[in-house]
Amino acid sequence: MKKYLIVGLGNIGEEYKNTRHNIGFKVVDFLASQHTTTFSTQRLGDLAEVKHKGRTFILLKPSTYMNLSGKAIRYWLEKENIPIENLLVITDDLNLPFGTIRIKSKGSDGGHNGLKDTQAQLNSINYARLRFGISNDFAKGKQVDYVLGEWSDEENTALPERLEKCAQAVLSFGLSGINITMNTFNNK
Q: Where is the active site (predicted)?
């Protein structure tokens, strides 16, 4: 059975739960709930397992805080013997309009500290990522407040449909591969 490591980036703690920066956690939580599985606390993070059409998706929410996510990712790739091409990291992106999905097979960290640490820990930029647009609707100098701020009412209303789309993209990544997934879900 092919295994995939699906990592939702975020920060642990109740104060971060509904913030824009925690969209990665929100996506893997949504996927776990759709498959009636729950997370358990393990080394360096919370894990859940989803089996779907002959594939095993190991969902990870690192407990290392965003800026040190790579340590948990490297540990679980090695522990579960998952090749880097079966890794998908889910993160927020200020450069995309709210709810826009952008999937790439590799790339730079784009200034995102969670991706920066992942790149350093894996010594590679060749891993898939799903970026979820949170827009950049903030005043100059207020980026941290915006990213760590909670969703607006309008965003909260739109989130369930967007989370569903992300969950479909994650399953597509495992079933159809990165290229078909990019063609199907990018900018949708």
A: 21
